[in-house]
Amino acid sequence: MKEKRGFGRREFLKKAPLALAGAAAFPTIVKASALGRAGAVPPSDRIVMAGIGFGMQGPSNMKSFLGKGEVQWVAVCDLDDEHLAEARKTVNDKYGNSDCAVYKDFRQLFARGDLDAVSIAVPDHWHAILSIEALKAGLDVYGEKPLTHSLREGRALCDAVKRYGRVWQTGSWQRSEENFLRACELVRNGRVGKVLRVEVGLPSGHYDFAGTFGQEQIQKAPAGFDYETWLGPAPWAPYCKARVHMNWRWTMDFGGGQLMDWIGHHLDIAHWGMGFELTGPVEISGRGEFPTTGIYNSATRYWVDALYADGTPFVIAGGYPEIQSGTKWIGEHGWVWVDRGGFESQPAYLVNEVIGPNETRLYHSRDHYQNFLDCVRSRALTIAPAEVAHRSASVGHLGVIAIETGRKIKWDPATETLIGDPGAERLLSRTYRKPHQLPA
Amino acid sequence: MRTHRTNPMRPRLAGCLFLAAAALAASVLAAGAQAPPGAASLDQILKEIASYDGGIESAPFWKLRDYVQARKDDAAGRAECETKLLQFLKTPATPAAKMAATRHLRVVAGESAVPALQALLRNDATADYALYVLQPMPGSAADKALVQALATTTGSTRLGVVSAVGRRRSADAVPVLVPMLQQPGLAVPAATALGAIGGDAASRALLGALPQAKGELKGVVAGALLESAERALAAKDATGALHLYEALSTDAGLPPAARKGAALGRIAASGSASPTLLMSLLTGNDHLLQEAAVAKIKDVVAPREIAPVCAALPRLPENIQVQVLAVLAGYPREAVLQTVMSAARGSSLPVRLAGLRALETVGDASVVSFVAETAARSRGAEQAAARNTLGMLKGRAVDEAILAQLSAGGADEVRGELLLAVGDRRIFSAKAAVSAALASPSPRLRSQALKALRAIGTPSDVPGVLDLLVKSADGPEQSEAEATAASLAQKTQRADARAALIKTRLKEEKDPRARARLMALLPLIGDNSALPLLRAARNDENADVADAAIRALTAWPTTAARDDVLRLARDSRNETHRLLAIVALVRMVGLDRNRDPEAAVADLRSAAAYSWRPEEQRLVLGALVQFPCGEALELASGYLREATVRQEAEAAVEKIKARMK
């Protein structure tokens, strides 16, 4: 699909020994087997993609894209040989060849020059640097939530999306699910009257995704896993199994706990229903409970109050049974609640209401991945663009800061500045370990 | 103190004097603070944490956190923490321990800490700690320290300092950064920092470096200039911004992304000349610049000036046409409808699809006929797009046009599409037309009418739908009738009256086949008042009716039928019914999310008692994992003896154990 980029094949061959180690030859984008296949997208029209990060959400995202005939997946990139081998096998099995190239260095991947888009699913502390480098390389990006690891990084990423004219889709896939759309449209069209309060229920505790809980003995990182690069811009910490794959999200230097992991889902939906996608709260306060042993330091139970400029209070909580998991808008005339697999209302018939075309209709995407691909072609905004994801993540970042400072903080969402709290201001950004730097 | 702190020639002495003074002040202040009885002092905590390896023995880590948290908001406490944490960073403590100390120092350190932090910057091994604290520190003292360090540090520490002054936007750093643009290894981070800082001096230096920059540096300098230009534009300095964008645009070696960025910026900064520039780029032959032009149409082309874009559309490359159509969708109908309609009728499928999508917002009643016919004759993506558009066209006139065409007859395929639109659009006034379609000889049309009725019907329409349900011999139509009857019944306000119409009909209905079909509706409605009727029908003399009643009980959507399925699992002699009951029991256990795990496991224990097939046992094991508790572990462990499910039991035991942690 793309015109030739800055690096030619010869230059690439000089730069990418790993790609050659992983593949017998340079990946053949135009597969002979693809030609003439009934219903197949002509190779010249395919969107050429690669993926970075295959420890958790990456494989699932890649499989969804591989299911689209218009995508040609050409390369995988990860810091762990095991992840790389598995991801590469998935691609090669799909295409029935051994063409998928492998990379450990994302800069080499971006230098290929034949990519249209990249799917990024790495730990949060790498989100901003990696994504901005991808945008700078002229790639459209499907990136995971939360958008970035700090609030200031979020603004930088949004600026870069605009600067380079790229398409961005955040992995806030609930937006492409019918129930969530319907719930938001009901609220937007006043079916519950004026909204008096919004409740956002998120998970609590720490979940052992990788089965490595308790494996906190410091040891040498295994051969085949580039731990030093994995740490990247984050503060230095010694290797132990529990710190890395999947469970990194429970340590604030790499992730943001349950609050930040889920803010891009249920709070994002809450914003969507309220029409607050391009703004944020004006006051935030919060409290949290933290582990007292082990290496994880993100809140296991938390409560954040956020007040918006129109006077609507939001509660974002994890571990409080009175706040139901999902998003609930409570209005003058009833409520609407939506979660994965749950959609209820009071009065009950609301959930069956159809929103007509003459009412407020929201962006409708039936397939989150397809929406991204459609927008790569049309250059239109996706259903979960960077700015919207940044605003959702901002509420989480501000909640984390309010919990850490123990103060009610005042926020100006227009200028994205804290009002009268230079102490809290320090927490809006993160310092990178030398020599890492946020690119322009 | 002030003299020492601002004298760059004597930083070490300044640091020592400062530390001594701060320690003295802290000890005086801390003496007045009330420590909780029995609480460890900061000295004790730091002594404990000094050997922390970053792993499992993290107790001192948490003690330190609590200590600082409790004192960060009072001056005396902050001063004590600042002083002692700074001192700690000079000890031979482990890196993990020092990182832990730094984390808290970042929050409590004031300008008084700067000299000591400056000293730490001189050592590669401690520089990160200093950067971590200095970069976010408010005030000019941190700026001064970092700018000084630009000249005194080397290697990776210097790179870290460059990054920090960029993030802080320290204007005083510009003169030190500019010469770095010529130094290999420093040019990339320096250019990045200069872009972040912005301003005339930084921009001039970057512009000067652009022509000679090669490879990665070219892209970085270009990116920095783009960022700098954005800052100028945001500060209303369009001339300054345009100067940068134009300089970038003339550089032949610019990477594509930067070239596009420069074009976007040029259009944005060109003021009244923007539309002309945009049109020249749009109709040129550089694909990248065409994309940039499309992205800016909405920003710079007023609705009354969109005609040239519309006129150019057919001559543009196919993929650019697709992009332009997405933009035209945001323009007033009268200005773009004709162009969009031409595209939707065109020969290229991607362009037709884009045209149909644009019609969604710019179409009106005049396009109803075309869109309905397109939906009827096409398949796949085009049909989906046409249907979506028909459902989304705005205006009451569109509803009237759909009704009028529906009443006028015509091909069944087109009428079917119009009926779907009636439902999508919630056209309540179409009730008569929908009812007429329910009597159509075409099962497909009847099915589409049922779909429409789901949206616009009321509970009073249920009897008519039940008639259709019991008479229909067409499978898909039966499914639609079931879904419609259930959906309409759900609209009854009182939850315990939703099944009333079905119960009444069941009492009147004698045909066993019809009775069985009606019973299948009841779990879709979920009105618990229907359960006694189903319980009675379990023993109906007609086997089909009894089977339907049992299936309805096992499909019940709430836990109200838990005892029924439990009994079925225990007593049924029909293997199918027994299996359905076990599946239902396991499902029902998971329905109550807030239930006590022990109570849920007790139900699963009951299900387990009647589960003898491996597939049933696997179901129970799968459900047990959702309720991590001792009872679940015990029950799952019991299956370890079963060879056929040992593997699943082992996995379940592991998961339960892990979740119990």
Features:
heterodimer; A: 440 residues; alpha/beta; 9-stranded mixed sheet; 6-stranded parallel sheet; 13 helices; 15 strands; globular; B: 661 residues; mainly alpha; 72% helix; flat; disordered N terminus
Overview of the molecule:
The complex is a heterodimer of chains A (440) and B (661). With 440 residues, chain A is of the alpha/beta class. Chain A has helices at 9-15, 17-22, 57-66, 81-95, 106-110, 124-136, 151-164, 178-188, 227-231, 257-274, 368-378, 386-405, 422-425; strands at residues 47-52, 71-77, 101-103, 117-120, 140-143, 168-170, 195-202, 281-289, 301-308, 313-318, 326-331, 334-339, 342-346, 409-412, 417-418. In chain A, the strands form two sheets. Chain A has a nine-stranded mixed β-sheet. Chain A has a six-stranded parallel β-sheet with strand order 3-2-1-4-5-6, sandwiched between helices. Chain A is globular and about 60 Å long. The model of chain A is unreliable at 3-39 (pLDDT under 50). Chain B has helices spanning 2-6, 11-32, 42-49, 59-71, 75-88, 95-108, 114-121, 124-134, 140-152, 155-168, 174-180, 187-197, 200-209, 215-234, 238-249, 256-269, 274-282, 287-300, 307-312, 318-328, 333-344, 349-362, 368-377, 380-392, 396-407, 412-425, 431-438, 443-456, 462-471, 475-490, 500-508, 512-525, 531-537, 543-554, 562-571, 575-589, 597-609, 614-624, 630-638, 646-660. Chain B is mostly helical and 661 residues long. Chain B contains 40 helices and no strands. In chain B, 50% of the residues are buried. The chains are: A alpha/beta (440), B mainly alpha (661). Chains A and B meet through helix 7 and helix 13 of A and helix 4, helix 6, helix 8, helix 10 and helix 12 of B.
